[in-house]
Structures are given as structure tokens and as C-alpha cells.
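Reopening this one. Same input as before:
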Amino acid sequence: MNRFKLKPIAIILIAVCAISAGAIALFLSKSGATDKPAAAPASTARPALTVTTTQPQMSALPIKLTANGNIAAWQDASIGTESNGLRLAEVLVNVGDVVQRGQLLARFAVESMQADVAQARAGVAEATANAAEATANADRVRTLQSTGTFSGQQINQYLTAEQTARARVESAKAALAAQQLRLQNTQVLAPDSGIISARSATVGAVVANGTELFRLIRQGRLEWRAEVTSTELGRMVPGTKVTVTAASGTQLPGKVRMVAPTVDPQTRAGLVYVDLPPMLAPASAAAPGRPRQGTAPSGGSAVREAASVGAVIPGMFARGEFELGSSSALTVPQQSVVVRDGFSYVFRLNADQRVSQIKLQTGRRVGDRVEVLDGVAADAVLVASGAGFLNDGDLVKAVPAAAAAPAIVPNTAPAPVSSASSAIK
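Same output, byte for byte:
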């Protein structure tokens, strides 16, 4: 009963709410229409930025291959001894000293060798005397051979004794020459000019024949052993120019000397041997009046002389670039490329003076030019200056490059030159 009595009241309340909501909506729509400003015409829009434009160009870019490797000595010579059982009396050089070909490096004790030479010389004198006696007897036998004084057997004995005595003289002379050679070997000489890289010789040591005493970097020559993948190894040609950058930052010019005929089966990389400038400066390598023996001066150490010509020594890690020629490529200026979120973009100027952001695929970079592999056409008009401040769809004003930046008038008056050195600078 009560439910049927309340039904008209509910209908009346719903109707009142609906009328109120409609009135409020009508009021808000009218007030919004009166407060909204009129849209500005497109012709009166202001550009976001004044920019200069450019177009992609075809340029010849160098082809370079980057590789890593170690710097090593061209040849590391081992200097040993040919004297057996002799005592080292004096060592005249140390690690890092610059030596010349034939310079005295170490000296063995010579007392025992001098005694052996004297003994061998006495043996030559004895053999010579015996040979003279045998020759005299043989001459007498020859003069009396026709008289029948001596039998044929006696004649043969005297003639054989003469030949034997002469042979003993030659043997004694050979023994003397061998002892004199051993005496000469008591002086260890440098087989070539270069730098002492290792020393195992110590004064007082008794060394065996063939023991290594020093190691020598021949002629101070260095090489860079680059590790190149097997796919790129075929592009390496002897004579190719290389720019090597050492760990110290020093850059050296190089040239490919040879390519290894094999590839490491583990790393699939081959070695390319690149000649580098020598560690020794030309003035140091052939300095006039340099002492032929004795300890090299402290200023002649390899480390110090290497620092004067580039601070590059064997064992250093280095990175290099092989110059493999050049190729034609489509390039754009560096300033027109914008890097955002790890990608490269350029802004193309459209006919309505608005810009479109285009994603690029870039390649080589040489100077202020960037190679474009994909993204824009060769006839596209791109924003050159101010691209970093733009967004996709911005309205810009394009002006010539000369109008964007004030021209700089060079000073035509000649500058005074105080000296030749200032003129070179």
C-alpha cells in the first residue's frame, strides 16, 4: 500500500532533477561560447625560429679500417758468448743504453786465454824447427839418391818425414789461430746498432758457451702488429698507409710491411706487420765522436730518447686506422644532425615553411660532414643552423646563410713579422 502512494512523488523528483540539469548545461554552453577567443588566421602565425638551410652533397670520403694490436721490436737480437768457462771481468752497458755496431759490451778475464795462446805459439815454433830439420834431411837424400848411398826405403822415410813435419806446422798454426780466436771472443761486441732491452750478464759470473748475455732491439726499429679479422685480411696490401695511436695518445705514421700468411684458428684473426718510425732519433743513432766502448751516458737511455720522438716503446697497446682509399657518399653538415634518444635526425623544410623531423641512418664522419646511408633524398632542403631547437611541425623562417650571421671583414693591413719563427707560427 505505501509503495503505491510514494510512486507519484518519485516521478516528480526525477522530473525536477532533469529540468535542473538541462538548465545548468545550457548556461555553461552559452558562457563558454562568449569567453572563447577567436582563432588567429594562419597568415598571422609567428615563426618559431629563423634558420638557414642546406642540401645534401656528394662527397669523396676516405675508407678506413680500425684495428688493435701491440707495438713490438722489429727484431730482438740475442747476444751470447762463444767463450766456455771464462769469468766475466767487466760489463760496460746496461738496459736502455744505445749502442753502435762493434761497440764493446762486456769483457771476460783473459789471463788463461793468453797462456793458451802463448803455448800454441810455442808449439808453432817447435813444429817449424822440426820441419826445417826434416826438410834439410830430405834435401840431402835427394842429392845422394843417384849414388846408391841410401836405399829406396830410407829415401821414402826421409821424404815422408819432411811432409809430416810440414803438416805438423800447419796443425800448430791452426791451433794458434783457434786460441787467438778464443782470445778475441773474450770481448763481447754489439752485432748491430740498437738499444739494449735486457741484460743477464753479471760481473764475476762464469758462463757456458752460448749463454745469452744481452738482448738488443736492432736499429731501434719498431713495428705494430695489428690483429685483423680474416674477412678484412684480404684488403691489406703491403705499402698501405696507417695512422697508429699509442696508449699515451701519441700518433705515428706507419706503412704495412707484410701480412701474415696464416690466421689464428682460435680468434680467426691474422697479424699485419706495420713499420713505425725508429725509437732512436737520427742524431742519436749516428752521433759523431761517440765512444766505441764503455758505459753509455745516462742521457742515451731508450726510454728518454723514445720520449723525445713520440714516447712509444715495445709492449705498448695501440690502435690504428688503415687508409684503404675513398668512395663517393651523400653527406650533410654536422650542425644539421640532431641526436635525440640515441638516434640521429634532421629537419626537412616543407613548402609551407614548416619542418618535418626525419630519422637518419648515418655512416662515416669526416670533418664537419656526416655520411647519410638512408633517410633523405639528395634534393631535400634541410635546416642547417638552429636544428637543435626545433620540433616536428614548427613554423620557421628561412634566410640565406650570409644573413643569418654577420660577415667578418678581414683585416687587410699586413701584420708585422718580428722573426722567422713567428712567421712560421
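So the earlier flakiness isn't reproducible anymore. For the record, Residues 2-35 form the longest helix (34 residues).
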